[in-house]
Write a structure and sequence with these properties.
two-stranded antiparallel ribbon; 5 helices
């Protein structure tokens, strides 16, 4: 698994933090994940691009990326006029390369669904729906192939 956090460090600069990488197998992921914290804006398109490139190098046939967000992309965009367009473009690019990309949101569901597509977005508020949705995703993209 690969777990990456991202935030806008300064205008237009996306800071990525890798909490767990495919090569990391030291049993300390839980400690690294405990270090996750909220930052400023989020340049989702840059994060999708970074993770997408990592996934393209992986040998697995089925690749799934889940982008967990508190809402819409908010950082300054560097590929398109708006952060939404930037993220849409990145998502479309990697879907063409057979990476299944899903948006897990805690706010602004309808707006985020416009970026990822209605069939590729789910609500992951802390009401237990995240676990249920992850089971559905595993069935849809992994077990039923």
């Amino acid at each position: 698994n690969l777990i990456v956090g991202h935030t806008e460090k300064s205008w237009g600069t996306c800071e990525l933090k890798v909490y767990s990488d495919f090569a990391t197998n030291d049993g300390k992921d839980c400690y690294r994940l405990a270090d996750i914290s909220a930052g400023g804006g989020n340049i989702d398109g840059a994060a999708v691009t970074y993770v997408g490139e990592k996934l393209l190098k992986r040998p697995e046939k089925i690749k799934v990326m889940i982008v967990i967000s508190d809402g819409l992309p908010a950082g300054a965009s560097f590929y398109a006029d708006t952060p939404n367009e930037d993220t849409k473009r990145a998502v479309a690019n990697y879907r063409k390369k057979n990476i299944n990309i899903l948006g897990a949101v805690v706010d602004q569901f309808e707006q985020v669904a416009e970026i990822y597509g209605k069939d590729y977005v789910f609500d992951c508020r802390s009401d237990g729906s995240l676990e249920k949705e992850l089971v559905k995703i595993i069935k849809k993209f992994v077990l039923l192939r």
